[in-house]
Amino acid sequence: MTDTWIADTRTSYDTVAASYAERMRDSLVGVPYISGVLALFADLVSQGGGGPVADVGCGPGHVTAHLAGLGVDAFGVDLSPGMVDAARREHPGLRFEVGTMTGLQLGDASVAGVLSFWSTVHVPDDAMPGILGEFHRVLRPGGPVLLGFHVGDKQTHKTEGYGGHPMNVMVFRRPLARVSDWLRAADFTVEAELLLEPDDPLPAGVVIGRR
Fold first, then answer.
1. Are strands 96-98 and 154-160 parallel, antiparallel or unpaired?
2. Number of folded domains in the chain?
């Protein structure tokens, strides 16, 4: 798969930005396991001495804001300018930047944590090693990385999204072990694999590693 996936993902999320922001505004309310995972990540960052944390693929900024509410110095990066505009409107006191996880505009060892919360679900397998290499590059030694994603072993083509708007993205479901193996290959130590709501038609997976 060529890098057209980057342009397709950007265009698709620019198109759905307003509808997606509305849908995500209260999405962390009443989801104790996801909230618990984010609280755990915040604790890991704090135990490491704190510092800036990159929410990579932040969308409309709801997770960035949640982390900030937990005392994390979080900022967001997203491929879609439309999403970054929405994040800035929704959370004007926080920092959001347009950028791509394939080439983060961040210095080496410059952040205390990296979070990718369902933002790699449109990334093809062959691009994942390079992206995790970028996460490793920007993360301080000892810092945590958290990846959230759809669990399974299939891919589907999404042509319509939030608010009925057109989209053109692949959606990848991946086994926990595959994501963990990618992290190990990128020189992370894997500390936790979590399967959330395994009886749900679309289970959630979280893998936590450390540089």
1. unpaired
2. 1
pLDDT digits (tens, 9 = 90+) for 67-106: 999 999 999 999 999 999 999 999 999 999 999 999 999 9
To the nearest 10°, the Cα dihedral for 146, 118, 94, 51? 10
- Report the pLDDT value the prediction gives residue 138, as an integer from 0 to 100: 98
Q: Is the Cβ–Cβ distance between 55 and 115 less than 8 Å?
A: yes
Give me the CATH number covering residue 96.
3.40.50.150
pLDDT digits (tens, 9 = 90+) for 194-207: 999 999 999 999 99
Alpha carbon distance 57, 60 (integer Å)? 9
> In sequence order, what are the residues at sequence separation of 6 or more whose Cβ sits closer than 8 angstroms to the Cβ of residue 88?
61, 96
CB atoms within 10 A of CB 157: 9
SS (H, E, C) the chain: CCCHHHHHHHHHHHHHHHHHHHHHCCCCCCCHHHHHHHHHHHHHHHHCCCCEEEEECCCCCHHHHHHHHCCCEEEEEECCHHHHHHHHHHCCCCCEEECCCCCCCCCCCCECEEEEECCCCCCCHHHHHHHHHHHHHHECCCCEEEEEEECCCEEEEEEECHHHCEEEEEEEECCHHHHHHHHHHCCCEEEEEEEECCCCCCCEEEEEEEC
- Residues of the domain holding 172: 4-210
